[in-house]
Amino acid sequence: MPLFFIILFSSITHAQDTSKAITKDFVLGKFDFKTDACFVKVAPELSNKTIYLQQEVYNSFLNMIAAAKQSGIQFTVVSGTRNFNYQKSIWDRKWKANGNLSPIENAKKILRYSSMPSTSRHHWGTDLDLNNLSNSYFESGKGLKEYTWLLEHAHEYGFYQVYTSKENGRTGYNEEKWHWSYMPLSSKYLTFYNAHITDADITGFEGSELASELHMISNYVNGISKATKAM
């Protein structure tokens, strides 16, 4: 058996033994990923700061970037796991910056690209942002080559773009060509989320009372591409 496939099989087998148990606190991001044994730190040469991912996700990512490298493509993780407190710090900063807006308009502006705490897929350690946080970067030159490679090959390693174009009626966040989700795990977490989480669980930050009015769970948590909804 070729070495690449031995590494891939070994990684997946090991990861299945260490995947995160599913609880309400976990899917809401209320845990410390830095001390959780299911999470590992991304190597410094593969990230632009200290970033953690679930072990299984990281193993698959390593296999994916090894394959991409053979095509002259390199990927850097620019964001990974963000728990409730991490996401709250982002939300609070943007909330204060838009203080001149009404609460509902403030929330809608933030929600173009950022999640309310307790509703982010980044809580789960399954989703990562790659190379650049601008759609325009992936529309020409080097960025377009990277995005094209991902569209053609990322699914082979379990990764899918969940926030695709909204032209076909997808709700929620704007398109994010940099955001890729490891569906073998994230699809399970979304199923659990839909079965156990309500608007009442989305609380503890400025504007949280708007979760019901904004239909956060149906429009945003479930506002993913139709292809990934079927997984």
Automatic annotation (TrEMBL):
CDD domains: DD-carboxypeptidase_like (cd14847). It comes from the Bacteria. SUPFAM superfamilies: Hedgehog/DD-peptidase. Pfam families: VanY (PF02557). Residues 51-184 form the D-alanyl-D-alanine carboxypeptidase-like core domain. InterPro entries: DD-CPase-like (IPR052179), VanY-like_core_dom (IPR003709), Zn_M74/Hedgehog-like (IPR009045). This is LAS superfamily LD-carboxypeptidase LdcB. The lineage of its organism: Bacteria, Pseudomonadati, Bacteroidota, Flavobacteriia, Flavobacteriales.
